[in-house]
Amino acid sequence: MRLHRLFTTTFLLTSVVAAPGPSSGPSAENVKRVANSEAGPRQNKNYQLPVDTKYFHEPGGTNELGHYDIRYYAGSPVSYEERGDTLHHLIRSYLTVFRERNIETWIAHGTLLGWWWNGKIMPWDWDLDTQVSASTLTWLGENLNMTMHNYTSINPDGTEVNREYLLDINPNHIERVRGDGMNVIDARWIDVRTGLFIDITGLSEVNPSTQPGIWTCKNFHRYRTRDLYPLRETEFEGVKALVPYSFDKILTQEYSTRALTKTLHEGHQWVPEQKEWVKQGTVQGTIQPHVPRSLQPEGEPESGLKNLFRVL
Ligand SMILES: *[C@@H]1O[C@H](CO)[C@@H](O)[C@H](O)[C@H]1NC(C)=O
Ligand SMILES: *[C@@H]1O[C@H](CO)[C@@H](O)[C@H](O)[C@H]1NC(C)=O
Fold first, then answer.
1. Contact (CB, 8 A) for 228 and 253
2. Ligand minimally distant from the alpha carbon of residue 13
3. How confident is the model at residue 53 (pLDDT cuts 50, 70, 90)?
4. Are 45 and 74 in contact (CB under 8 A)?
5. Taking the model in full, what pTM does it have?
6. What is d(CA 68, CA 252) in angstroms, rounded to the nearest whole number?
7. Strands 160-169 and 187-191: what pairing?
8. Which residues does ligand 2 sit against, CB inside 6 Å?
9. Domain boundaries, the chain
10. pLDDT at residue 263 above 60?
11. Mind listing the pLDDT tens digit for each residue in 161-179?
């Protein structure tokens, strides 16, 4: 098993030199462990933590403010464009760093739905979701908690991107049941410029004797071993990624089949010719009525399994 390899590999926490990749591809270098105080306020110097049992804090509970880490929130929400750019590099850096270190992770929830449509983040998404096994989570907590990761990449227009990300592991991860519901997120990968993050949740077989092969997170999502494994190799936002084996079953259970056919969502329209979700009002021509998937011409939209086969 991969996990075994993971435990026997020696990880160096300083001056890890990334293997040279394609020149325009992302690379992850220079890992540094930070003290809690160092991870603290940068942009947001005056934040106050509420006294509660929650480990991760956000500046507010609304859709607008609930998607930033309070330590790095710069005081006002980012623009639509900045959010798109931030989330794009957030997931690319995460997938690149985890792959380089041979740490198993796969994309989940709305992020998996975005992958299904076109291998990208849905432009109305605020945060991203990934999953790991609970044993990977334990390993992360012991070896990579509070590590800062530098990442470099070149944008298509030639500009260089240099970003830093914090990996922070919730100590409550060892408790595998929901509890008071304040700590359902087990870890975060945080963009320290803006505070936007990836929520990482662990899955475990909570009752191996009475319910073998049933994996759950702390937020009542349940999966069968055979629906998760073997994970499938694919691409997301232009970098290598893994998705659960039965991604279609998992997606329809979580979002209904309609989520895989609905072409108008949150002010965005699916444009099959471009294989993109385009903000309404910016789509050329008139809005197309929804055509059931069974009536759509072959090959449109290119998604799901086709998306997978393209990269296999
Ligand atoms: C990452 O890069 C920044 C600026 O380039 C530098 O100040 C920082 O020390 C680097 N961090 C690590 C972990 O190497
Ligand atoms: C990670 O580090 C932070 C800061 O030191 C600490 O509060 C937290 O308990 C640590 N997490 C784990 C899993 O040990």
1. no
2. 1
3. confident
4. no
5. 0.81
6. 28
7. antiparallel
8. 36, 141, 145-146, 169, 171
9. 5-258
10. yes
11. 999 999 999 998 888 778 8
